[in-house]
Design goal:
The protein is an all-alpha fold and 462 residues long. The chain contains 23 helices and three strands. InterPro entries: DUF7779, NLR-like, TPR-like_helical_dom_sf, TPR_rpt.
């Protein structure tokens, strides 16, 4: 009865509510409604009249905050959906789908908050959908999820990204076929997601397939083919296939420089990747030279505080550590930390915490133990909050803090830290994992030095 009164008094408000019930019922952005293309909703006065009518009849509520968002009661959502005829359900579900397809933004770091706000609504309108949908919506959703997973090192985000990428493949594949070039980028990103989830075999197989298809269909010098080459090299590097990874990175750098120019972003990415591969092979001087070129190029093209520039600076610092150039490495780690913290990512981003962790290690190598401990505790505290107590990055900070105590001969704190490391590592990986065994050995060594020989023997036997 209430809905019928709204429809009679303010038809635009009734239509707006019909759209809203097919979105997620919480945190509905006002921007999404004003850009819905419903008649009059782009007019501020007409929108306020319509939304005010819905609020007045307690259909929706407006939440307080910096960004105007609305909330729909669960029973209202259910009741309106049941009230609509089958044809109306089809029409308004498709309308909601079209609105999300049009409004969900291409992922950029500075737009990540908008993507985060829109994502639940995109998931709501696509869940169980049997209606035609452009695969680009799935793709944009998946790119955001993958980027969020990278930022947070969040396994759940990667799992969601995998699901959405597969749906993007299915949706696009129905229109263009499974081996169409428009599928390559989706397949490549799916492979990178699988790699982050530890599905390395499937990731490598998929990337090899995409790369080979791209070579045949597009040719060896096309940017898309070169991107596939770099991605395959990255996965191979992570799997320890360093020689093939180096070869692919060298080819990618040569071809990208030739086709796009020496200072194109893709060329500089290839340069950074090749430098990383050379470091993995122990060719530190060559890696340093290549990484310096990549830093200089990215500074000119992207700016000194762009996230990609800061990544290259951090990579250069790592190879300088390998060459025992600790003071310059410290300076670069500080620059990466300050840039990520103040300009690019924020103090709680995983890459900012990685910079703090790496700076702490450089300070330890310089025997500036007090500064190193302060920085490592900052990294550990941040990672515990962001990632959880048993995340691999959190454990890495604990291991390095224990090593710092060992360097200073702080046996009591070292024992406590090693016990904590063993407890967390065993919980994360199980009792037989190599990292757990290493933690047992480290603790055994500490308690043996303290004269606790019975406990040490038991740990050594385990």
């Amino acid at each position: 009865v209430t809905f019928e009164r709204i429809a009679e008094q303010e038809p635009a408000a009734a239509d707006l509510l019909k759209l809203i019930v097919f979105l997620d019922r919480q945190n509905i952005p006002e921007e999404l409604l004003t850009q819905s293309n419903l008649p009059g909703m782009d007019n501020p006065i007409e929108f306020r009249t319509a939304i005010g009518k819905l609020i007045g009849f307690s259909m929706i509520t407006k939440k307080r905050g910096d960004i105007p968002v609305y909330e729909l009661h669960r029973l209202v959502q259910q009741s309106i959906r049941e009230y609509l005829t089958a044809d109306e359900v089809t029409h308004w579900r498709n309308t909601a789908l079209e609105v999300m397809w049009r409004c969900f933004p291409q992922y950029k770091h500075e737009r990540r908050h908008v993507c985060s706000l829109y994502l639940p609504h995109a998931l709501a309108v696509t869940k169980g959908s049997v209606y035609p949908i452009d695969g680009s919506l799935y793709y944009r959703m998946a790119v955001y999820l993958f980027s969020a997973g990278s930022a947070l090192h969040d396994l759940r985000r990667y799992e969601e990204a995998e699901d959405i990428y597969r749906r993007a493949l299915e949706g696009t594949g129905k229109n263009v076929g499974p081996d169409h070039p428009s599928m390559y980028h989706i397949m490549s990103n799916l492979a990178l997601t699988l790699n982050e989830l530890g599905k390395h075999d499937e990731a490598e197989r998929l990337l090899r397939r995409v790369f080979e298809n791209s070579l045949k269909v597009l040719g060896p010098d096309k940017p898309e083919t070169l991107r596939m080459m770099r991605n395959l090299a990255s996965v191979l590097h992570g799997r320890g296939n360093l020689i093939e990874a180096q070869s692919l990175n060298q080819q990618a750098l040569k071809m990208t420089s030739k086709t796009l120019g020496p200072e194109h972003c893709d060329t500089l990415t290839s340069m950074n990747n090749l430098a990383t591969a050379l470091r993995g092979l122990g060719q530190y001087e060559k890696s340093e030279e290549m990484q310096r070129r990549a830093v200089e190029g990215r500074e000119r093209v992207l700016g000194r505080k762009h996230p990609d520039t800061l990544t290259t600076i951090s990579n250069l610092a790592l190879v300088l550590e390998d060459l025992n150039k600790y003071r310059e490495a410290e300076e670069l780690h500080r620059r990466a930390l300050e840039g990520r913290e103040e300009e690019a990512l924020g103090s709680e981003h995983s890459m900012t915490l990685l910079s703090a962790h790496e700076l702490a290690r450089a300070l330890r190598d310089l025997e500036r133990y007090e500064e190193a401990e302060e920085m490592q505790r900052r990294a550990l505290d941040g990672r515990e909050r962001l990632l959880g107590p048993e995340h691999p990055d959190t454990l890495d900070s604990i291991y390095n803090l224990a090593l710092l105590f060992q360097k200073q001969g702080r046996e009591g704190e070292l024992e406590e830290m090693n016990r904590d490391a063993l407890k967390r590592t065993e919980k994360a990986y199980g009792p037989s994992h190599p990292d757990t065994v290493r933690c047992m050995y480290n603790l055994a060594s500490v308690v043996y030095r303290q004269g606790k020989h019975v406990e040490a023997e038991e740990l050594y036997r385990q």
